[in-house]
Amino acid sequence: MSGAPIDIAWRSVFQGLPEALWLVDAQSLNVVFCNQAAADLAGRPAEAMEAMPVHALACTPEDLAFWSQDMAGLMAGIHSHSNMLRSDGQLVPVDRRVAAVASPAGMPLLVLGMVDRSEQASTQRELERLLSELRATLDSAADGMLVCDMAGRVRAFNQRLALLWNMPDTLLVERNDAAVEAHMAGQVADADAYRARLLGIAQFPDEETTDILQLRNGTVIERRSVPQLSHGRPMGRVYSFRDLTLQHAAQKRIEQLAYSDVLTGLPNRLLLSRRVASAIESARVQGGGFAILFIDLDRFKIINDSLGHLFGDRVLQLVAQRLQSCLRQTDMLCRLGGDEFVIYLHSGATDVAEGVARRILEEMRQPFMLDGMGFSIQCSIGIALHPQDGETLDDLIKQADTAMYRVKERGRGSYGFYQPQMNADLLSRMKLEHAMRQALDRGHMAVHYQPQIAMATGRVVGAEALLRWTDPELGAISPGVFIPLAEESGYIVTLGAWVLEQSIREAAEWMRAGSPLMVAVNVSALEFRQPDFVERLVVLLQRHGLPATLLELELTETILLQDAQEMEQRLAALAELGVGLAIDDFGTGYSSLAYLKKLAIHKLKIDQSFVRGLPGDEGDRAIIHAIVHMGRALRIEVVAEGVETPAQRLALEQMECHYFQGFLCAPGLPAEAFRALITGGQAYVWEPVPEPT
Q1: Superfamily of domain 263-419
Q2: b vs e for 646-675, b when ≥16 Cβ sit within 10 Å of the residue's Cβ?
Q3: Boundaries of each GGDEF domain copy (predicted)?
Q4: What pLDDT shows up at residue 2?
């Protein structure tokens, strides 16, 4: 061993230490002693390193620079991380320390100590790798990420967070936690609620949370937070922020489609039911009530049929706007479908509902304008009140619909409140309609024939076909009851077609029996408007062998005023066939002298309401006189209906009326009875009554 001797006690102490130690002569910088730990770290025998220059252990520029200093620099020592070059060429990371000591003999020494840092360095590298992966994961995440400690200080965040929250670059560089928090609070629509929620989350560090945030720029963000745990205890919180703007918009659209009418954008029945359910519960707890208005547009089908459904849809949109303008924010307008609307009125007071109904009617009376076309639309309104008229929405709509239906029966264009008796009336009406639809197949209906008499001769010249219905349970049903019901339900087309064929068949039988009499058949407006009406009529005439000249169709004035051009063409086609045309109940409708001249009209029928006042009522006499003489001037024959007394017949004869019919002659007779009348030698059904002297 070279250099100064080392006290045995020192050797013993150094040898027992776990740290690798070298004693270096401060003057020669040669190793004078090293312990076994040093030999193990260097991979050399201790004897091989004693008397070796310490420079041989240096393998970094820092080491070489240190050992090249003067004595003063060496005696100051050093402590830093370095590397040890083992004998096998492996670099070992070490924690290196050099300090000056004096030997017992007073010799200046330097103690070089090294601790193997291989595991620590490996752990550090693994930590750096994990941190790198974490950073890559954060930056590649689709969600914005924010990591905070328990005090709310920002530990980490990714670029997606900065984009979502529109953070400026200066804020990202400064890493100012207070500025970041203030910026995020300033971005949300409700900053106070945002801060209050964060305080609430901080009070429960172990809980996971989910919130929806609405930013001022319209972005919708889902914020989720989970606690960050260490050894089972929270040490921070990880927030994730997901942009739900598109999903939120799609969800709103789905809800809009689910709860609104596509055409008008109004709430639909589903949304109305939710609103009414809430109102019912409120009324149960607090008392009070509300009203339901059922609105149906009068004769809206005419708009669809004449101008098309696209035009009709646009009209419905205008109507929706009109109706909405009549309501308060607490009310709700709903479109059920077609031309039906329902209104929920927050107040259940009768006067409030009545006031709204009147306001709607007044608003609807104002002309509509669309594509330069002006038109008017009326509506009928039924009103039901909660709770007296029903406890559920279905019940209230049903009752309001019933009330609306009664308004239509009374003439439309008005409003009415539900009355309990209406349900009984409606049920009776439904039963009647059901029985009517079965009556034909069950043989409960028949055509009767009322004779038409020539005034001058008293001879039967024809008959009016009259539909009669006798029900086994209900008895004889008046035509004044079931004919309007058939017209309203559309069943009049079926009934009319059946009556027409029965009448043509019967008239053909009269002709073959030697009595070629004309049969007059009433035709409803709906039946006459059927596109194939003329074609079906021709088929019936040919099928039963009846000349067209022995058939007369009785039409109302209303038919002649609808779709004038189409009606004119249809009437011309019938006239060309030889079918007679009569205007029924002349003078009771919207009479127009123009069509008498323009159309091929053969007869005018004076309504019995004018005949009833004869002979004493001067007004009725004047009207009948005018009709008869106008007919004669236009070469149109005139028939008086409802003649019941000889005095009435005489008055008509004096006014030169051509024909009459009524109970004075005979009521409507079953086919067999009428056949017996005209074939039994009764050409004259009464003796003319002599004129009073």
Answers
A1: Reverse transcriptase/Diguanylate cyclase domain (3.30.70.270)
A2: eebbbbbbebebbbbbbebbbebbebeebb
A3: 288-420
A4: 42
